[in-house]
Amino acid sequence: MADILVPTEIKMSDVFSKQYSLSPINYKQVDVKATNKIKVKRLLDPKIPFIRGTEPGSSAYLKDLESGVKFVRNSCVDKSNNIVQLQKTVFLNETVISYNNEQLLKDGDIVISTDANIGDSALFHTEDEFEYLLSSGMVKLNIKQEVNKYYLLAMLKDSYFNSQLESMTPKGSTIRHSGSRLLECAITLPNEDKSWVIQIVENLMKNILFSEKHAQKLQAHIFSIFDEELNCLLVEGESTRFSDLFSAKRIDAGFYSREVRDFFNKIEKYPSGNKTLTELGYKTKRGPSLQKRDLGRSIKTEIFNPSYSLLIYPSDISDYGIIDKTIFLGAAGKVWFLEKNDILFSAEGNVGKTFAICDNTLRFTTNIHGIIITPIDRNAIDMKNTIFVCTFLNYMKKKGIMDKLSVGGQGGSFAVQYWDILKFPNLKEEAKQKLKKLYFSDHQIDPFLFDEEAVNELGVYEVNKLRTLCSSLLKMIIDDIKSDKLKDKDYYLSQLQQFV
Fold this sequence. Notes:
alpha+beta; Adenine-n6-DNA-methyltransferase TaqI, Chain A, domain 2; 2 domains; four-stranded antiparallel sheet
């Protein structure tokens, strides 16, 4: 937030107007250098600027049943994602709820959280036939027809809007409520001679939005391949014996749960056999230390620099196998980075999330909290096997197996010494080729242009690359707009030469 200005002093008249309050939060103001600013309310319908959702009550939630209505709660929107996370919705009992049709979401609506996670915003997008009811802690905007909603969403996701809303919202003892204060927040606009930038921002946002949606579909397709291979195998439930405890040297209940034992039994009885990680040609090692004594002076930024490395914290790998945050690391010392056919595995906290390196166009690095699965002989490894290992581990995460295998509190950990218990089924080459195409299709598209069909040709790895490039370019452009330093169009187009 280096682009944001904050006041260094206040006037006595401000104290009088605030009814003599001495709480610093009441005097916090946020501003940027840009002179061309507009309040959010001027971009919305003056009669009904937004529609607030409703609260049906937890008694209307359905746990094991389905209905025609799903409930979009505050947890469905966050800072990392740009689309509403529909997998976090819950079904509602239609016989006990009442609502207005205006409180139902339509494809393309922009929603903002006004309670709890205040300021988080996202675009609603769906292709199913369910009705989606919005929570009372959120609003959907009634945007004027002439307003570019993708530009607006990009500005709502920016730190300038969020910092303003944060400063306007009183502190609460439990849940904070911002009410309609978002209408008084401002966003920056380019000057008239720089209006071309609105189309570029729109294309970048569309690429980010549709790549996120495509990543969800890809991940679901990948998991369906493993389901097809394993769900048809029938195994008999086995009781845990004392000899199992002595051989495994583990006493945590999750390790001996029915789900884990049945899963491992299916791998053991897989028709074409199974292999360990070592037999597949891989070994594990810890990620590098990023301490000052090892790197020297360092800097982290969201703006791309050709001499910096792309830093991946294991915790920032999403459930869909893409990277949630774009952080570039520059250091005085040498930065170790992952190479093609390496796999990053989240070994602490949210254990089991993975990301495979499929080319060397970006220099990825990580920290000591991650485990690197790396080839024993890099020349002898085929990319399809790397992708198979990566996606199967993520599949184990999805099935809840990794959570039960991890040890310790706060999400647990999966240390190097536990890897000898894992085995991988010998999938047919046809299945491995399908996984490879879904993960790494080797397609490339121009981040400054939007083509939905082209986005749908990408694999998980290319989706991540596109999202990373678009996020970094978007950050660069928005920062320049806020500081009144917007450059010529050709300058931003030339940045692509450094990316690809």
